Amino acid sequence: MNLRHVLFLFTFLFFYLAQSQTNERFIRIIGNAKKELSANKAKVVLTISEQKANQYVSDSLAMSFNEAYSNAISKLSKMGITESDLKLSIQNRYNNRQISKRYSLTIDYDKLQNLSELQDNSMKMFDIAYLFELIDENLETELSLMAIEDAKRKAKAICDEIGMEVGDILNIEVKEAGFGTELIADKKDTLIKSYKVAITFKLID
Amino acid sequence: MRLFLILISLIISTSINSQNRIIIRILGQSNYVESAESNSMMLRVKNSEINKIHILSDSLFALGYKSVPEKVNDYSSHNFSKFRINEASVENFDRIMVLCNELLIPIVSVFYMMPEHSFEDEDIQAILALRNANSQAKIIANHLNKKVLRILNIDDDTTYANSFYDNIDLDSERGQLILKLLEVLSRRNEVYSKDSKEEFRNGAYTLWVTYELN
Known about the structure:
- The complex is a heterodimer of chains A (205) and B (214).
- Chain A is built from 4 helices and 8 strands; from the N terminus they run αββαββαβαβββ.
- By secondary structure, chain A is α+β, with helices and mostly antiparallel strands.
- Chain A has 2 domains: 21-38 and 134-204, 2-Layer Sandwich (Translation Initiation Factor IF3); 41-131, Alpha-Beta Plaits, CATH 3.30.70.
- In chain A, the strands form 2 sheets. Chain A has a 5-stranded antiparallel β-sheet with strand order 3-4-2-5-7. In chain A, strands 1-8-6 form a 3-stranded antiparallel β-sheet.
- Chain B is an alpha+beta fold and 214 residues long.
- Chain B folds into 2 domains: 20-35 and 118-213, Translation Initiation Factor IF3 (2-Layer Sandwich), CATH 3.30.110.170; 38-113, 2-Layer Sandwich (Alpha-Beta Plaits), CATH 3.30.70.2040.
- Chain B contains 5 helices and 8 strands.
- The two termini of chain B are 33 Å apart.
- At the A-B interface, helix 1, strand 1, helix 3, strand 5 and helix 4 of A face helix 1, helix 4 and strand 6 of B.
- Strand 1 of chain A pairs parallel with strand 6 of chain B, so a sheet runs across the interface.
């Protein structure tokens, strides 16, 4: 084969590829899957405040901030929460002339009810953010398989409509996952985790 | 020499063929409306007045309503409890609101429950979007005195099909920031959320379809 033949061959291939590119036959479908997840943990912000005696409330007792704090630590320790688990987040010493501090701590979701029951006038839950750990490999596998099945079903439905057939898979592209070490915080204690995959199939007449 | 002639004829035929062919890409769209399947209300009562909820439950049972107040996790207050009531019938829902009012049970919020989002239902929307694209293709083909020869490809990935993206340089820093923001917002899965402040939810399914005209 001389140089002239090689040149002709390349010219032919160029035109052939240019032609076939515009004739690409495929159907790319987005497959979806979702699953409702429950929170694993919760980040709670506690407010610990000093108490001043109220002349209008019969059982009102004065309690310094240090007393309120010791009282709170004592109660929390019964749940296995130590002082080192509390992280000071915002100081607001002079709110209504009352010393009050906010502490955040992360606890297991199933301990929230117990923590809620420990609340009193000196220790209150100020805010709760529910935490979702998405490290479950089984969940990712389950959702990805569901999404692939969804794409296959939808591709078949569309091809049936136009009298064509779904061919082999040419390409799979994960569009949305968010698994791994990700930790999601939300105000609701349930979260819908979605999975999205784009699958390209051959389109057959 | 023969090879040369074959190649020349192939190139000429390919050029003539491609001159006659027109490729059009159309965004087919199917709009739909999801209606609420139920009405919901959130009640908040003092723990010392929890018997009001028991009375309400008994009243609903006596009226033959299937809806019951269900306790909702609310850890933020140790003095109050939250309850939720779902009722599909608007008339019954209205009656329950009157009952709550009579029992002095505060209604914190009223909202709607949307049906569970079904991916199987999207198949129908996808087919409708395809039909919409087909009719658009026929209109264009007729206008050009051509015929729709065949569908070359179908693309369900219409992420950037919205004209909203036309004015954004997606490669720029600002564009990337907008994409990041949209990604964060999409994690909230509003489409899949069952609770809604609106009685109806509008949606659209889009599909790119590429046709060959001849």
